[in-house]
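Please, does this match?
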Amino acid sequence: MRVRWAVSIWAFCLAVLLGAGATAAWADSPVQLGSARIADSAGILDGSERAMVTDSIDDLATEHGVDLWVVYVPTFTDPSDAEGWANQTAEDNNLGPNQYLLAIATEDRAYYLSGDSSGPVSGDQLTAIEQRLILPQLRDEDWAGAGVAAAQGLGSAVGGGSTGAAGSGGSTGWLTVLLIVVVAVVAVVLLVVFLRRRRVAAGQGPAPTGRAGAPVDPLTTTSIPELERLAGSALVQTDDAVRTSEEELGFATASYGEQATAAFTAALAGAKEQLTQAFALRQRLDDAEPDTEQQQRDWNIEIIRRCDHANHVLDEQAASFDELRALERNAPAAVEELRARTAAAEPAVQTARETVTALQARYTPDALITVLDNPSEAAERLTFATAAVADASARLAAGDSGEAAVGIRAAEEALDQSTQLTGAVKRLQADLTAAEQQVAARIAELDGDVAAAAGQADPTGGLAAAVASTSATVAQVRTALGVANNPIALLARLDAANAQIDGALQEVRTAAEQRQRAVAALGQTLQTAQAQVSAAEDFVVSRRGAVGPEARTRLAEAGRTLVQAQGLAPNDPTQALSLAQRATSLAGQAVQLAQADLGQFQNQSAGGLDGMFDGGGQGGGNGMLGAVLGGILINSVLGGGGGGGSRSGGGMFGGGGGGSRSRSGGGMFGGGGGRSRSAGSFGGGGTRSRRGGGRF
């Protein structure tokens, strides 16, 4: 997942259009700040206005321990962009994490609120302060009001209040929930900042050294609990990056073909391999075998490093991927296509709802747990897609194709999830039907085993015990078949009984017979394992905004184990059978853990999130809560890495977790540098660079 402070999604969700700029009359380089908190080389404040801004700045420092400087110049130069100028001024004057700088170019009609990434106000909050509070004042040329608004907004953010303007209408709900989402994933942000600082130390300045002068990796001196937290955040962040990158690659491949996307496919495969190894290490940490403190330290550090590398593998293709997708250029056609796709997807939601109702009459709730709410979730995604398409259309009408691309990307992902959710219902229906058929076949097979055991020598009594246990299991399953049941669970019970009696009959069967039995059992078990892993995958992916590292780890291990089983099947069916059964068990654990995470998410939403959405309820009238649950808004708010461009409307392909130091975040796509306003979501977590600001 690309962790970027995305001004583009704020523009999409808050419907903020930036005005056109004017030509500069003269230029000002970054200034040296004196003892005063206001620098006004533009000469636009009178005495009373200066006093008003000063009072607000003093109140901010007294009440919240946060400092603010406000600089007014005619225009920005050396550097000429607002972000670079403001950040350079902050750097030149050694501003710390609790110190902020508002830079305003009155002739350029450009501005930027600069803040350190490790400060108490997040990049998204800074963007909200800019767009909701500062920008309206600047458009009215209320220069003093802009300074006062900055101070009040910072105070509200630090104090836990709202950074939205009063009376802002429905869009305030979008802002509020996005701020809540940011708070909910603050661990991911802290991870990114941590990794970024490591890279700064390694690549942009003298690194800390030990007694022998060798560089010291900050991770080696971090406590184990903190390493566990960072590693868990890295897994979630990178897993989201890989999954959304895979979705984005699917869109691109459908449009441009496999040959045009071959390099991106290879990058994704490389990132997946690193992530798989990271999850395998987490599984070793989670298993029942005790680990030494050194193992815990080493493995958590290795998880962080592998996730970091996975993001960078994606980042290397970021710019090329943007050029390929070019959503800005194709925005009008994309909007029309999405309208048609949204309308075409609606019947599938109704069909899924009817299918779930029919399945409930035949099967127990535990058999349907992964799809019970799929129809309502699919409807939520369609609602959000409709809102995103409408916003994109409005952006195009206003001539802003860059922001339209953001809505297009969000709609694409929402539609993709809706299709996945309804498709999961069909797949489970087919899996349950297949399981019922396998149950009948397995019962017949076990009846034959019980008959074959009759008359066999049994000096230890083990065979008789196996026969009795198997007969009891078969009788219980036959009884369960007469009512609503879970055929997959029944099949698992029969598989266990089959393994027991096969072991007891091993002495009286030839090696060829034993192999034949193992091969026969393996085919059915692999089919069950594949179904269970697929169901768990569908469940986690479509609800990844709520799912933590434990569930993702079990799912990854289930997939890895299933692949091992499939690979061993031709030559070692006995070992493959054991691995397939383990994959099934791990998939079930993944679903249980994901359900627990989902329950916490739902409790939090019931405790306050629902009311933040227009219309209330499950996302209200705009599908926002469903988009948060699906990870769509998290990917947009915390999406992107470093990179090196600006105002990109293409797809997002990148990884991250590091890059050059920047006082404020935003527009992060890729691992280094700073990109901004990117609409897609192919990439990984990364550093922050251009966050907000703009023209007025």
Residues 472 and 535 are 30 Å apart (CA to CA).
